[in-house]
Inverse folding.
């Protein structure tokens, strides 16, 4: 019914519009084409100028209004060390392109208005001017060189892998349809070997239990990291392409099946500090970012405020199928002490899910009588019979 | 179309052509015009480039309406995810799931199918075939003074391969499992494994088949365009006298010829991986509870092959629009295009550079990060010829006597859009900034403005300007102007706010945003974008009405050269028959942009140079 | 790109548009194989690459297709000189050699499978199958053109008209092209 009504409205509108068109054509005939065209030119030229003003006001005003969502500004400041350098390049680029944008849009519409067709006006015969061409070839080239140098400098630093001997925490994120599976190396600080052929319901990452490095690896449901420590994320995928995306940390890298990738970054602000920043008050005691002071649940004013519930997030940024939009994991940046505390509470995946089951290569006679932790598929790895 | 001029009016053009023209004895070879002998050879299997151009245009419009309507549906989902969508069920059938309480919603699989189809249709069917197919066919022979394309038969085949390709894609919409839903770039493994997504089975098979036929169509067309430009220019039409439209179409055809075959290679390898168990792009995959045998493939290899086409493809889309706008701005500003040679060199530079920048789509794909050093440099170098073009267009307006028509307005709008969208490319091409902006709405805003809306503006400018040549009537100017103002305001309203979404980190291709606190805070903006998109679509409906209404009821063309243009197409009869010129072929005496020279309003290309006159560029 | 101003008379000494179109089409086909071979190099650099020796049959087939090019060219020369018998004979010989090439390629794939390199064994082998397969498809297109040429040669009276000369020249260009393409591919496989 709604569709029908909408269609009828549309048809009516188009009939009216066609009539308007016809009438103006008639007006042109009555007044003489040339005079009519001149009048039209004037009107359209004025519209151009009006459009230019409104457009520039709208873009600048909206930029100011949404300033807080831009990189570098307000609460959207990077939460990682390398992020600040990227944000500053963004800002420099914004400055240059902003100037060019405003100047060229003004010139374009101003010239359109200024040189509207009028009776008696002769167009200037000006086919080219080599000096001008050189000027506006060289200036963009110089600006581009400047931006390229700054950008590549930062890029090569950000994308470099950890140096040998450097101290860092290695964690692993594995994308699958449709979630992230996380793995920490445990006390030995080393991630164990994996083989995709070993993947089963109980061994979601295909860890090879004969590799002793695997025995202390644990699988948390959230990313916990200490502030100020270098982190190397090993990024893998189990089925299709995914992308390990930490928006607040300016971290993004595809997860490719069969080809591990990595991203190295250093968190520089804890979740608690970030929440405090979002909830900060200005000099007058008013919230600096009022939108973050709204309740999480709009229907319940008693629910916590948005800044209090804030968490860093891990998302997927490469289309991976129908559940692509919901691969969320929480990221918590904590102090060194809290991190150690959390680490000590984690139990290795081997201990909690594998030890003593048929999958366990170190299984002894007694442990085998214990009830299996979960159903083990028939195609358990062949190594299960050793010892 | 049966109108034949009966009045024995003597046209100045005819005299010039008769005096200086080149007699190729056309009529001695073509008694009784075998090409237009009946309805089928005139309107369906026509070999006349002008009719094929109209076929491309109208098919392109059909696809544009479908593709845009799809975008409205997924915009509804993004703007109003809680809204009851049961009312579209009659149209979309099983794509809408209705729960017990009668509330309908778009299933995520079909959301992704809509996004994928929208991209494929708009990029390939509308902005490649509909834009370049239409205007290359219409203008190359007419502006070069040729009777037709080098091979009218291959030209006809080109259209019918396009039609076949479209038919297959259309059929795929009705598959039980839905059409392909893995994004228009069709990255494996998602596109290679039927287990990975419901659209990756039969949907992907039809998608591949359709696009292979599409490539055949593009290549047949491109071979013809290149050959015609190099071999069939009329007497006196040296390369440096060609209008910029032809330069743009020519470089576009070369880009297509060199890049589309690479896409076919990639597709063939995907087909082998899908059907015959090879491992070009697949490795170590565990999916659907099963470890696959494929070992040793690289999904990134596909991305290299795809973007080797994919990047030239965006120039295949934008170059024809640039050419059309250069011509339209010059004609309606009554001024020569500023810096003709610089314009040609920048087209050539853009065409060349487009082949060595493809990996800027892949900075975050896991390729060796150090290759970025190479690709960032060349990517940002493209900004230079692009800037030169923009400044030249603005300088063309300077000092003009601008006649505001729907065509020239869209030309000016194109420049505005190209500036806005081009500048954001400087952010994305710089790999350091791309870390954050890659695959966010910033990218969506960037390419929609710079190659979506801008290319459409070029296309509209072309349609309003050459409509009289195609149909012998004018489109309604007032409606055209309403269309322009509605579209430029609407398009900015739709795509400008997306920059803010992108800078806030909101990823593209999300079915809904509320799973994440960081992305779910822009409800109002998303609603605004959706409403703006619907309104803008309304203005396009206006255009379609104007287009078809004017074919039969538009103001009739009474003079041959309504815009006072210098180029050859306006020296043909109002309704040119097959062969374009009834007698001799015109001889070209000067470049294409003598507007306002020596106090004359314009000097057609067929008029010989004066005694002491120097050719102007 | 040739952008010099054409100062010469209109269309003098210009290549026929249809022939030119064929050359442009060959450039397009060449791009497709350039893509395949680039993909081959990129993939090879990524490791996990099975090395094997190409079966000798592929060298035999190379000889056959080279021979066919020579015979077709000689046939063309005979055609222009009006020597009907040689023209027809060599044309038929070319067709037989062309068919022999396709059969030999097929035998070559069988030999490849026999030494343990099947289609799905390793990308290094898969590439050989796919690339030579797509090339064979292009040869089949050339064989279709040859059959057409043979029909013309045997059914029509031998007359050297511009139209027939053009048609023959186009068949010849395409045949030389697929020949050249195969030599390039073989050298590529051998030297990589």
């Amino acid at each position: 019914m709604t569709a029908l009504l909408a269609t009828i409205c549309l048809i009516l509108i188009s009939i009216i519009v066609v009539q308007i068109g016809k009438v103006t054509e008639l007006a042109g005939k009555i007044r003489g084409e040339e005079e009519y065209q001149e009048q039209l030119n004037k009107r359209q030229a004025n519209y151009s100028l009006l459009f230019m003003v409104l457009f520039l006001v709208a873009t600048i005003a909206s930029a100011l209004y949404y300033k807080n969502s831009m990189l570098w500004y307000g609460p959207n400041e990077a939460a990682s060390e390398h992020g600040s350098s990227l944000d500053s390049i963004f800002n420099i680029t914004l400055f240059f392109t902003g100037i060019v944008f405003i100047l060229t849009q003004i010139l374009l519409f101003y010239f359109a208005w200024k040189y509207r067709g009028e009776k008696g006006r002769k167009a200037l015969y000006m086919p080219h001017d080599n000096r001008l061409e050189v000027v506006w070839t060289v200036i963009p080239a110089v600006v581009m060189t400047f931006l390229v140098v700054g950008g590549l400098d930062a890029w090569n630093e950000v994308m470099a892998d950890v140096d040998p001997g450097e101290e860092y925490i290695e964690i692993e994120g594995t994308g699958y349809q449709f979630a992230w599976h996380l793995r920490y190396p445990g006390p030995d600080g080393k991630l164990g070997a994996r083989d995709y052929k070993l993947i089963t319901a109980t061994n979601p990452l295909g860890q090879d239990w004969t590799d002793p490095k695997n025995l202390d690896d644990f699988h948390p449901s959230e990313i916990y990291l200490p502030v100020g420590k270098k982190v190397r994320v090993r990024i893998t995928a189990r089925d299709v392409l995914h992308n390990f995306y930490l928006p607040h940390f300016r971290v993004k890298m595809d997860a490719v099946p069969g080809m591990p990738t990595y991203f190295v970054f250093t968190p520089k602000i804890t979740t608690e500090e970030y929440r405090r920043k979002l909830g900060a008050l200005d000099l007058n005691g008013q919230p600096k970012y009022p939108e973050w002071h709204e309740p999480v649940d709009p229907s319940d004013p008693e629910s916590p405020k948005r800044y209090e519930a804030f968490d860093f997030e891990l998302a997927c940024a490469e289309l991976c199928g129908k559940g692509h939009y919901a691969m969320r994991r929480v990221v918590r940046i904590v102090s060194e002490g809290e991190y150690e505390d959390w680490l000590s509470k984690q139990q290795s995946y081997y201990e909690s899910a594998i030890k003593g089951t048929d999958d366990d290569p170190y299984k002894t006679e007694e442990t085998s009588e214990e009830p299996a932790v979960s159903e083990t598929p028939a195609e358990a790895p062949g190594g299960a019979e050793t010892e | 179309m049966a109108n034949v001029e009966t009045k024995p009016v003597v046209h100045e053009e005819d005299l010039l052509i008769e005096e200086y023209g080149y007699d190729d004895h056309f009529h001695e070879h073509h008694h009784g015009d075998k090409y237009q002998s009946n309805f089928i050879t005139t309107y369906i299997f026509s070999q006349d480039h002008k009719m094929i151009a109209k076929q491309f245009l109208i098919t392109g419009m059909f696809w544009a309406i479908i593709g845009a309507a799809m975008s409205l549906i997924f915009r509804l989902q993004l703007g109003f995810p809680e809204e009851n969508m049961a009312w579209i069920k009659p149209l979309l059938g099983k794509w809408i799931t209705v729960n017990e309480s009668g509330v309908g919603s778009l299933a995520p699989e079909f959301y992704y199918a809509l996004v994928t189809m929208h991209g494929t249709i708009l990029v390939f069917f509308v902005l490649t075939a509909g834009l370049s197919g239409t205007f290359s066919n219409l203008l190359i022979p007419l502006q070069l003074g040729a009777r037709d394309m080098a091979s009218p038969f291959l030209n006809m085949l080109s259209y019918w391969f396009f039609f076949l390709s479209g038919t297959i894609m259309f059929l795929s919409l009705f598959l039980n499992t839905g059409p392909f839903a893995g994004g228009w770039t069709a990255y494996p493994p998602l596109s290679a494994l039927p287990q990975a997504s419901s659209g990756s089975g039969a949907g992907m098979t039809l998608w591949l088949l359709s696009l292979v036929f599409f490539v055949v169509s593009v290549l047949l067309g491109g071979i013809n365009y290149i050959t015609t430009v190099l071999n069939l220019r009329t007497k006196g039409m040296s390369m440096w006298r060609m209008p910029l439209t032809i330069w743009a179409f020519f470089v576009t055809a070369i880009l297509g010829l060199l890049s589309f075959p690479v896409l076919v290679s990639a597709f063939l390898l995907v087909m082998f991986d899908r059907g015959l168990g090879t491992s070009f792009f697949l490795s170590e995959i565990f999916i659907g509870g099963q470890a696959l045998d494929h070992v040793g493939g690289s999904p990134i290899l596909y991305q290299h092959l795809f973007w080797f086409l994919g990047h030239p493809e965006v120039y295949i889309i934008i170059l024809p629009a640039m050419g059309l706008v250069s011509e339209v701005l010059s004609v309606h500003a009554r001024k020569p295009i500023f810096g003709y040679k610089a314009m040609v060199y920048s087209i050539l530079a853009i065409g060349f550079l487009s082949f060595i920048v493809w990996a800027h789509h892949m900075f975050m794909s896991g390729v060796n990060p150090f290759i970025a050093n190479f690709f960032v440099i060349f990517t940002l170098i493209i900004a230079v010829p692009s800037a030169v073009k923009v400044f030249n267009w603005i300088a063309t307006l300077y000092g003009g006597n601008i006649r505001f028509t729907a065509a020239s307005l869209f030309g000016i709008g194109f420049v505005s859009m190209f500036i806005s969208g081009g500048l954001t490319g400087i952010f994305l091409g710089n790999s350091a900034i791309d870390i954050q902006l890659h695959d966010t709405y910033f990218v969506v805003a960037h390419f929609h403005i710079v190659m979506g809306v801008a290319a459409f503006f070029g296309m509209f400018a072309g349609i309003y300007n050459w409509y009289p040549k195609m149909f012998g009537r004018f489109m309604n100017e007032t409606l055209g102007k309403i269309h322009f103002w509605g579209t430029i305001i609407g398009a900015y309203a739709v795509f400008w706010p997306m920059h803010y979404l992108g800078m806030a980190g909101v990823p593209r291709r999300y079915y809904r945003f509320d799973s994440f606190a960081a992305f779910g805070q822009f409800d109002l903006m998303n609603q605004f974008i959706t409403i703006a998109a619907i309104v803008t679509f309304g203005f396009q409906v206006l255009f379609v009405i104007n287009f078809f209404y004017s074919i039969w009821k538009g103001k009739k063309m009474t003079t041959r050269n309504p815009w006072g243009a210098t180029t050859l197409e306006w020296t043909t009869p109002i309704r040119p028959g097959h062969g374009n010129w009834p007698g001799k072929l015109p001889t070209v005496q000067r470049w294409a942009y003598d507007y306002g020279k020596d106090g004359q309003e314009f000097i057609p290309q067929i008029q010989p140079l004066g005694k002491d006159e120097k050719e102007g560029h | 790109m040739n952008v010099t101003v054409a100062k010469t008379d209109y269309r003098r000494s210009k290549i026929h548009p249809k022939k030119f179109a064929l050359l442009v089409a060959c450039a397009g086909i060449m791009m497709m194989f350039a893509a395949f071979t680039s993909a081959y190099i990129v993939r090879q650099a990524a490791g996990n690459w099975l090395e094997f020796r190409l079966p000798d049959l592929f060298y035999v087939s190379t000889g056959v297709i080279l021979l066919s090019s020579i015979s077709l060219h000689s046939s063309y020369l005979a055609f222009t000189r009006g020597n009907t018998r040689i023209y027809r004979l060599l044309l038929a010989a070319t067709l037989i050699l062309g068919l022999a090439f396709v059969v030999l390629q097929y035998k070559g794939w069988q030999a490849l499978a026999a030494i343990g390199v099947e289609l799905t064994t390793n990308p290094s082998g898969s590439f050989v199958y796919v690339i030579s397969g797509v090339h064979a498809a292009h040869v089949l297109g050339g064989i279709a053109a040859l059959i057409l040429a043979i029909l013309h040669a045997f059914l029509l009276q031998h007359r050297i008209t511009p139209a027939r000369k053009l048609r023959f020249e186009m068949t010849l260009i395409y045949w030389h092209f697929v020949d050249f393409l195969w030599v390039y591919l073989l050298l590529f496989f051998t030297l990589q």
Summary: Residues 42-282+292-599 of chain B form a domain with the Cytochrome C Oxidase; Chain A fold (CATH 1.20.210.10). The longest strand of chain B covers residues 96-98. Chain B has a mean pLDDT of 91. Chain B has one domain: 42-282+292-599.
